[in-house]
Amino acid sequence: MATVIAPVIEEYAGGTIAREQVGLWRDGFRRLRRNRLALAALVYLVVLVLVAIVAIFWTPYNPATILPNTLTYLPPSAHHVLGTDELGRDLLSRMMQGAQISLIVGVGTSAIVLTVGVVVGLIAGYFRGWVDNVISVFINIFYGIPGILVAIVLYLVLGRGLGNIMIAISATAWMDMARLVRGQAFSIREREYIEAARASGAKSGKILFGHILPNALGPIIVQATFVIPIAILTEAFLSYLGLGIPSPLASWGSIASEGYQALPLEPYMMLWPAVALSVTLLAFNFLGDGLRDAFDPRQRR
Amino acid sequence: MTDSILEVRNLSTHFFTDDGEVKAVRNVSFSVAPGETLGIVGESGCGKSVTAMSVLGLVGRPGKVVGGEIMFRGRDLLKLSKEELRRIRGRDIAMIFQDPLSSLNPVLRVGYQIDEAMNAHDKIPRDQVAQRGIDLLKQVRVSDAERRITQFPHQFSGGMRQRAMIAMGLSNSPDLLIADEPTTALDVTVQAQILELLRDLNEQTGAAIILITHNLGVVAGLCKRVVVMYAGEIVEEGTVEQIFEAPQHPYTWSLLRSVPRIDANRGHRLLSIEGLPPDLIDLPQGCKFNPRCPFRVERCFQESPPFEQVAPAQHAACWVTMARAYADMGAANIKDTSPGAASGIHPAGRKLPVAEVPAAVAEPVGD
Amino acid sequence: MLTRGTLIYIAQRLALIAFTLVAVSFLVFITVHSLPGDAFESDRVHGKALQLLLHEYGLDRPVLVQYWSFLTNAIHGNFGVSLQIRGLPITPLVTRELSVSAELGGTALLITIGLGTTFGVLAALRQNTWVDYTLTSIAVVGYSVPSFVLAGLGVLIFSYWLPTITNGVISYPAEWTGTYGTLVELSLPAIILGFYTSGQVTRITRAAMLEVLQQDYIRTARAKGLKSTVVTVRHALRNALIPVISILGPLVISIITGSVIIENIFGIPGLGKRFVESILSADYNITVAVFTVYALLIGVANLIVDLLYTVVDPRIRY
Asked: For residue C260, which of C249, C271, C251 has the smallest C-alpha distance?
């Protein structure tokens, strides 16, 4: 019958994917721009990053300098904008350093989780078979272990340090990502253009990274964004317990811990890290929410 | 219209969305006599479902009925309070929907859902509800009803689920049953069974039925009168014989020609209607079908044709009407398959007011 | 409901739990035994005395042998003895502290679910109104603000300000005095923990409810002429709770994680506090024991959740 609509897949994989993808990104960013909360969060985070970068080169005082007794527990003033702590160290400088640490730990952990999780997930989801079985069994067994416990133990084994804390936290976090990616790989694999690509002789690696990964990118990015606040929180908590970043480095968590001791005396000390942590975590959560809503394929009209 | 149980007059329903005001249903009027079977036909998006939902007040945000009257037993349904309307739903007017799997609550037993329909109203006494539920299932020809009634929807087959929905709809012996695409989600053989069931129930219970569908074959099987909708308006209405044998609106005519017919000649060309329905937010002037109409004239662009009588008990909204189009083309009626008539082009090669003849009309059937 | 299939499923899951426990305890055991330092460092024992001590506790044997004896003992419920507090049997210690943690966690779980589902349903029913925005914001605050911040804030409000303002009428003890029946006697830590994890429940419930309300069967229920409260509760809610049950497992994990934090902040004698202490004092027998107990808890909780599914959703059968 001559009046049938022309088939959708005229040129194979290449054309169709490009069209699908470009649409998703443009659509998503447009929707993200409309989400004011996410935008505000993004602005705040950009400012935070700038502060952290500045702190590499300059802080009002040296965060580790201990000052004489008379200058401990000072309330905010012109000299010390956020006051001083129990050893007379300037809180603003310490908070700036804390910003660096939180961001590095957060983003670094997310990067590790991203790499490991994506690779493992893609392999498991695409190749299936016994590879998938082994990986899945492994993940299912350890999935339920609270990340914090593992992080504590692992961190002590590896020894204190920024890099090690990132490794310790990602030890359980990657599994969530792997699961997500595996699921995505599973479903994307079944789509026709993958068959077309395979039929035309494309190699597995090319298919994995050229076709499957780009299409799964949305949820992956969202998940990676949500890992950051979890990592920051875990690090803060470890530092709060005294198990985290060693002094004299200042982490928001350790400042908070010292602040809790001083609560009746000097509520400011706990206030700064509390606010900083809360707002930063909120910001990442809002951003993640915004990204998720923006890239949700179901919402495309 | 004498003695109709439902009379819809100038119903308009619009959707107030972020992208604009979608005028989904505009000035729709029709009526249903007691015990009558009426079909509402049209393509997806023409407003037939929205019309039906408006009758029962089921149109959700951002939709809203913006005008008209819906007279049922002398009362305007649009003016009733929420509670009064609720009492009519399921009791005097019942509605069943397209996909019985998603239309039945998966976590509740089928029997429970049927009984619920009865318990929500006061027509059937409490002590009879359970037994009536079983009897209803038997009436809709579900075998092993006593056992089936305790099962969950996912344990039923597609056809059985639709029957259960029909049972639910008829449980309170309503005056009117509105069926929104009841067979679309089913296999062809099951479709036929469901239609036959509806026909029998119509005869047995005397309930009027409004059947909403895009499938002409379904309409022919069940309905006595037909209303054709396009882009939110009614473009034609008449008895089922009139619509099938002498359609007057080009849209109806096109619809019929796009369906393969066993009794057609070999040279009979199958029509596909080119183009797309109009934007319901930004409606064009004039007749809404004109961009796709093979018989349009200058006037069709400028003014909307009124809905007028073209034959006894048949109305259509068209400046040209098929009767005149055929006369122009030198054919007697739709069954005339002489070459000139079948082509849809004026034998003198008279050009239509816009660029070219719709390409689809000129495509030959493969030989 | 207790079909043969279900029983087989339970058996499979129990086997999986057992396997997990072995795997986890093995890994933790090996890991902690590779940590530098030991429990006796603080006692400043050296040389021969140290060797004797090590031998007495079997710490001079190869790791695998040590693990084997641990495993065989553990199966009988004997987790060995503490290294820090000489000779103190671990099992009764852990059991006692488990009950404390369970009390804290259990109360928190009730608060979480109660608060979370109520807020979520309300927010969904009043979507995009101020009710929705307020409740959603509260939820976001709940899971964004770190628990030790909430703890500090909570202590400030409930243990200092409120009692001062109301002259001691409303006062929540900052120390652990156990948690009892009525609302007033709930202690602050349980409230904070419960509130902290309720944010997730609120979001899920709201999302689930919104999705359910779009479903066709809700339209059918309305078309049948059911009253709107009936539609909401009997039809919508029952279906909306299914996704909520699916996060019960992760929720228990969240509560456990949270309890580790809260116990350490408030000094509550539960498993979480014991865990951290054991790490700090290198009392690794306890570390392994606590870890294993947690793994067991989580495994059982997940199994119960999966069984709960069959009750709520008739489409699911094992």
From this structure: C271
**Residue owning tokens 């990616």:** A181
A284 touches A41 (CB < 8 A): yes
Which residue carries 């009988």 as its tokens? Answer: C76
Cross-chain CB nearest to C146 (options A145, A267, A281): A281
Q: What does the alpha-carbon distance between residue C222 and residue C137 come to, in Å, rounded to a whole number? A: 31
Q: Please tell me the predicted confidence (pLDDT) of residue B93.
A: 92
E strand spans, chain A: none
C167 CB contacts (<8 Å, ≥6 apart)?
A: none
Structure tokens at A37: 């909360």
Query: What ipTM, to 2 d.p.?
Result: 0.77
What's the pTM value of the predicted model, to 2 decimals?
Answer: 0.76
Tens-place pLDDT, residues A28-45: 677 677 777 788 888 999
Rounded CA separation A50/C133 (Å): 31
B233: β partners = B230
Torsion of CA B131, B135, B136, B139, to 10 degrees: 180
Q: What chains are in contact with A, requiring at least 3 Cβ pairs below 8 Å? A: B, C
For A141, the closest of C20, C146, C287 (CB atoms) is C20
Lowest mean pLDDT among B7-16, C113-122, C178-187: C178-187
Contacts 24+ apart (CB under 8 A), C264-269: C264/A241, C265/A260, C265/C147, C265/C148, C265/C151, C265/C189, C266/C151, C266/C174, C266/C175, C266/C176, C266/C188, C266/C189, C267/C175, C267/C176, C268/C100, C268/C104, C268/C176, C268/C189, C269/C97, C269/C100, C269/C176
Q: Which residue has the higher pLDDT, A152 or C188?
A: A152
B-contacting residues of C 194-223, CB under 8 Å? 215-217, 219-223
Helix or strand or coil: residue A6? coil
- The residue assigned the tokens 């009407």 is B321
At position B282, the amino acid (one-letter code) is D
Token pair 């009519």: residue: B88
Residue A28 at interface with chain C, using a CB cutoff of 8 Å: no
**Sheet of B37-41, strands arranged across:** B93-96, B176-180, B208-213, B37-41, B225-230, B233-239, B314-316, B308-311
Give Cα separations from C186 to A201, C182, C192 (angstroms).
66, 7, 10
What pairs with residue B63 in β-bridges? Answer: B15
Looking at the partner chain, which of C215, C224, C235 has a beta carbon nearest the beta carbon of B117? C224
Residue type, C172: Y
Three-state SS at B314: strand
How much is the pLDDT for B209? 93
d(CA B220, CA B39): 9
What 3 state SS string does A59-85 have?
CCCCCCCCCCHHHCCCCCCCCCCCCEC
Inform me whether the C-beta atom of residue A240 falls under 8 Å from chain C C-beta atoms: yes
Angle at C282 between CA C280 and CA C285, to 5 degrees: 125
Return the amino acid letter for C123: A
CB contact under 8 A, C225 and B108: no
Residue with tokens 């937010």, as numbered in its chain:
B281
Sign of the dihedral through C-alpha B38, B41, B47, B50: positive
